[in-house]
Amino acid sequence: MKKIVSFFLLTFFSLNSFSQQNQLWRGFFSYTAIKDLSQNSDKVYAASENAVFSKNTITNELQTVNSVNDFKADIISSFHYSPTYKKILVGNQNGLLLVVNETDGAVLNVIDILNKATIPPNRKKINHIYEYQGKAYLSCDFGICVFDLATSQFGDTYFIGPAGEELKVFQTTVFNGFIYAVTELNGIRRADYTSPNLVDFSQWSTFDAGYWSGIVTFQNQLIASLTNNKVYKYAGGSFQEIANVGQPIVDLREFENRLVFTSANHVYVYDAQLLPLVHITQIPDVASTFTCATVIGDKIFVGTADKGMYQTTLANSVAFEDITPDGPVRNKLFRIKKADNFLWAAYGGYTKQYNPYEYCCGTTSQYEISKFSDQNGWNTIPFSDLLGARAISDIAINPSNSNQVYFTSFFSGLLKVEGNNNQITLYNQSNTGPNGLESLVLSPPNPSYIDVRINGPAFDKNGNLWMTNSLVENAIKVLKRDGSWQSYTLNNITMNPDNDDYAGIKIDKNGTKWIASYRNGVIGFNENYGNKFLLIKTGTGSGNLPDNDVRSIAVDHRNQLWIGTFAGLRILSSVDRFLTDTALETNSVIILDDNLAQELFYQQSIMDIEVDGANNKWVSVEGAGAFLVSSNGQQTLYHFTKENSPLPSNNILDIEIDGSTGEVFFATDRGLVSFQGVSTKPQDDLNNVFVYPNPVRPEYNGTVKISGLIDKANVKITDIEGNLVYETTSEGGTIEWDTRAFGKHKVASGVYMIFIAAQDGAETKVKKVMIIR
């Protein structure tokens, strides 16, 4: 396979419809980080990081729009709803403009600013969108762009600096025949709105040289916010103070007869006479800052930085209702783990260099953990309940007790969450004994500094929980089923074990632990064979890895070991070789690409490998989305990217498969989505064979799935007269039929018989499916 670099045709727009969304995908997005609001007379619209939602103030109907609806935002920075044209305009930090037609659900991706080569990439942010007389004026980091709402096309771009240079524009408005623009360093600039040549910078002049942050036209008055934390009105040739907020004003807007301005801890609502109606300083039991607010009738809507949107009223502004759509608390999920009825999520984490301090926030993350079920939605255990466990990096569910879940912390140890009441225990260097968890040792030593970096938890068949302990010699730890701890040293096994980090552990059928390391390749270990260790590293005779930085490991159904490194893929032909050999050599996968022999995933950074029920491999490649390759890697069955699928990002941090249903979950740095795959685990018998959809109606364009199969089952499909139309052998628990007779023409309407038999003929099952053309 050629090195994966995605190139796409540059067009000025692309049109997609999310009214016919792909039923094979589900989106699980966070709506907590409110970037901007907009409104009409009966509906409030909110934009989070990369998704949009709305609430009807009369019916209370809540609707969401995200990547599953073909809404492919980058990072949203501005937002506007046009009631006249029934269009939602969404500005992004990278200059992308998304236009959603509310009538038919079409999404227009306008990439003029995004592709403008003369503007540096870091100066394309769209800060504000203002509508006036059929035009949308986009305030950008370089100037003003005009967008025609009727034709959905860009018009002129205004560079309004004193010498025609780029200026960062925060907000615009039209007042008394002039268009006003608040700039970062050149005060308020204005020009005659009726001038036919506003692209000429000489048409623009300085109205006020102060450092302003926002401007609106309200009740035939010019209202502006200054960086001195005050709001002013322009009257009698000068600005007069209206209010002193005491904090920088982050949002200034008007709607109907209300003026609203917001700071981190204040929301003010003023009436048409510029008299204060409401002053909100906090939302009870919500620790967050405000980002924006608006008013519709007697209802006030407040957006927060990380807790979603809340609704209150002018009459009772101390009682709030959370109207945020259900979802995870963050879009960047570091690890996910699927149990039968639940999906657990952890938010981070560490960098590619295994540094927990630089993953976020300037320090180790203090994030919550979340649990999702189809019945109850998302529930979160806040950080305050996690006994101080930071930088949570991985998850293991006890296979004999799904209510016992372990979370590794890459700073604080091992966290156990147990029972329906989430009883929490934290294991660290202080309560696991001399053979337990260890804190790294600084040079020079500092006994008061505690940093216990645990990762890669995995249960063996005896119920023991194995894990790694980074930056210490005794790097392999096990919490035994009886509650005792045991350590195994890597001293004299690997190079400088006290300076190494580790990703995941996979345990094979022989009990061998395969450990992905940062600097020492793959470490194979089995305590049942005299504490035997074998290393798989770079170099001929040493393992043939393309890189010693191993990020992912998978043991497939044929007992092959798939190894994903930072620079390519390798396969160990059989894990059984560990038991007999003294050295292990891996091989690359060679495929034909354009009739040339190529190495599969050559020099690509493999972030995750997961094996589905049919022994196919889901592979996450950094910056290139997700691949599904056949069991031997010779065929690419799917390649999902942000551009051709609902993936919100091409950076997939984790993949998880529900073995019972075949659903594949993709945790990205911009949100969580799932794809309904068809490869499920094989069953022990044929008692639960299920055919869907049934009947197959004329409007359905997908395949018929037959699930609940045993492995290697023979499946024959005939018409009602006994004529064979399809035959296959199952790999895993599900097969698909495209309703064609041996891949040729579509079969006619009628009832079709499905005959299923075990490989030895000892077990059979008969099902029917009706097809309506």
Automatic annotation (TrEMBL):
Transmembrane segments: none annotated. Residues 1-19 form the signal peptide. Residues 44-205 form the PorZ N-terminal beta-propeller domain. Keywords: Signal. It comes from the Bacteria. InterPro entries: PorZ_N (IPR048954), Quinoprotein_ADH-like_sf (IPR011047), Reg_prop (IPR011110), Secre_tail (IPR026444), WD40/YVTN_repeat-like_dom_sf (IPR015943). This is Putative secreted protein (Por secretion system target). It comes from Flavobacterium cauense R2A-7.
